[in-house]
UniProtKB/TrEMBL annotation:
It comes from Streptosporangium brasiliense. It comes from the Bacteria. This is O-methyltransferase YrrM. Signal peptide: none annotated. InterPro entries: Cation-dep_OMT (IPR050362), SAM-dependent_MTases_sf (IPR029063), SAM_O-MeTrfase (IPR002935), UCP028291 (IPR014543). Keywords: Methyltransferase, S-adenosyl-L-methionine, Transferase. Coiled coil: none annotated. Pfam families: DUF2218, Methyltransf_3.
Length: 296
């Protein structure tokens, strides 16, 4: 399997039944014994860690045609959770937002069942409610989202748009986004959502450079945040709102020990946004950090 992954990543055999597979933003070491294979994955952030684990899991399951295997990942020693708000206050605030409702709650549950640990990428109910509130308050009609996953945040955005509203939803994964469709349909918003599968940067760059959107949400690969921001701002109408998720990267944006591409990209975009004369910017201590940027 290690050799096979050489098409997708840097691989190294480090001994009998041992090796490492290195991806752009993470790595996995493998050590086999007679009964089991011990995997240790590490990555620059939780999303990347989940990505590494997902690729490894899928390859293992594909290779294990002769035998039944199970791939279990235990929780990382330190996750992305940043405790900005004391846990008791956090519980209290979650309990005092408008409840997510049956459909979103079911989508969150389906996502957990279908994607396992990757479900941690989904926006939480309170962040979803914030997105919905922002779309309604801004009166947006045309929105764009970078990073759909199983469609939770898309649903929050789409249902806050008017009936003739439009959401361009961008993601690379047909597998994860296929979970979204039935929920969008049941919410009666699937006709407002234009799902484009492919690298979001290509989708963005193919759009005319005119201010066609009133709302944008970035929640995808962190290394591309500066590029997404550069492409989106010219396409945002005056008064339009750009929202960026995970701007703290678990607090590591403050830690000079983290110098990989993703962390540098996030620092760069945070700095550029705060100095951008076209925008009014507020960074909120919501979950992993949410920035609101309103185009003047
Ligand atoms: C954090 S998840 C999005 C979560 C989603 N907003 C939600 O609330 O459920 C990030 C998503 O970005 C997608 N993604 C990663 N790299 C991408 C790229 N280059 N272009 C488009 N989507 C990408 C992944 O497939 C994943 O679904």
């Amino acid at each position: 399997m290690i050799s096979h992954m050489g098409h997708k990543a840097d691989v190294e055999h480090t001994g009998a039944g041992r090796g490492t597979i290195t991806f752009r933003s993470g790595a996995c070491s493998l050590a086999s014994s007679q009964r089991e294979l011990v995997l240790i994955a590490a990555a620059v952030d939780l999303d990347s860690l989940i990505g590494v684990q997902d690729v490894i899991t899928r390859h293992l399951l594909r290779f294990a045609t002769q035998e039944e295997i199970r791939v279990d990942w235990t929780d990382p020693g330190s996750g992305d959770a940043l405790e900005i708000v004391a846990p008791a206050v956090d519980d209290y605030l979650r309990a005092h937002c408008t409840p997510a409702g049956e459909l979103l709650t079911e989508l969150a549950e389906t996502t957990r069942e279908a994607t396992g640990r990757a479900a941690g990428m989904q926006v939480t109910a309170d962040e979803g409610a914030l997105l919905e509130m922002l779309v309604r308050l801004s009166g947006a009609r045309r929105a764009i989202e970078i990073g759909v996953f199983t469609g939770y945040s898309s649903l929050c955005i789409a249902r806050a748009l008017p009936a003739d509203g439009y959401l361009l939803a961008c993601d690379v994964s047909s597998e994860w986004t296929s979970i979204a469709r039935p929920y969008w349909r049941r919410a009666g918003v699937d006709d407002r959502i234009d799902l484009r599968i492919g690298p979001a940067l290509d989708t963005l760059r193919a759009l005319p450079e005119e201010p066609a959107f009133d709302f944008a949400f970035i929640d995808a690969d962190k290394g591309n945040y500066p590029r997404y921001y550069e492409e989106i701002v010219p396409r945002l109408a005056s008064g339009g709102l750009l929202v960026l998720d995970n701007v703290f990267l678990g607090g590591r944006v403050l830690d000079p020990a983290f110098q990989d591409d993703d962390h540098q990209a996030m620092r760069r975009v945070n700095k550029a946004l705060s100095r951008d004369g076209r925008l009014d910017v507020v960074m909120l201590p919501v979950r992993d950090g949410v920035t609101l940027a309103r185009k003047r």
